[in-house]
Structures are given as structure tokens and as C-alpha cells.
Amino acid sequence: MTRENKDAKLNLREPVASMLADYCAAMNGPPSLQVIRAALLAYIDKELSENPGIRKRYDEIRKARLASERDGIRLVTTDEEGI
User: Fold this and answer.
1) 3-class DSSP state of 22
2) 55 and which of 12, 34, 48, 67 could share a cystine (Cβ 3.0–4.6 Å)?
3) What is the chain's Cα-based Rg?
4) Domain boundaries, the chain
5) Beta carbons within 8 Å of 16's beta carbon, 6+ residues apart
6) How far apart are CA 12 and CA 33, in angstroms?
7) Regarding predicted confidence, which is higher, 55 or 12?
8) Mean pLDDT taken over the chain
9) Which one, of 74, 14, 18, 64, lies nearest residue 3 by Cα?
């Protein structure tokens, strides 16, 4: 699959799509998803550091989600009739 086809799956609109393609070309071709991940991490870090209220909500939501993922599947016993 060509880079254009992969980027099309991201559903980026202009001018962002061409800006990303140009940036990746200028950087000797890192995968666009790698660039997007780095940008998103930087954006989230910046926003959380500037907004304590959102940071608190984010931490609570993330903690709850990670706890539920860690708990995984729970086994339960059935009654005598197998229900």
C-alpha cells in the first residue's frame, strides 16, 4: 500500500493532509502515523499541564479504565441447576 493510501485512511482533510505529507518528506520519510502519535502526545501533555481541572478528570478516567482492563474477565459460579 502506498503512503498516499495509508494517509487516506486517516481521513485527514486539506490543508492538514498535504502539510503532513510535506513534513514527512522533509524529515526523510517517517511514517505519518509516527508523526501524528508524537504530535498527539505533545498536545495532550501541553493541555494537561495547562489545565489542572482537565488533568484531574483525565487522571480519574484513565485510572478507572486501566483498572477495568486489568481486572479482565471474571469467573462466576452457577447455582445447582447450572444457571
Assistant:
1) helix
2) 48
3) 21
4) 1-35, 43-72
5) none
6) 12
7) 55
8) 84
9) 18
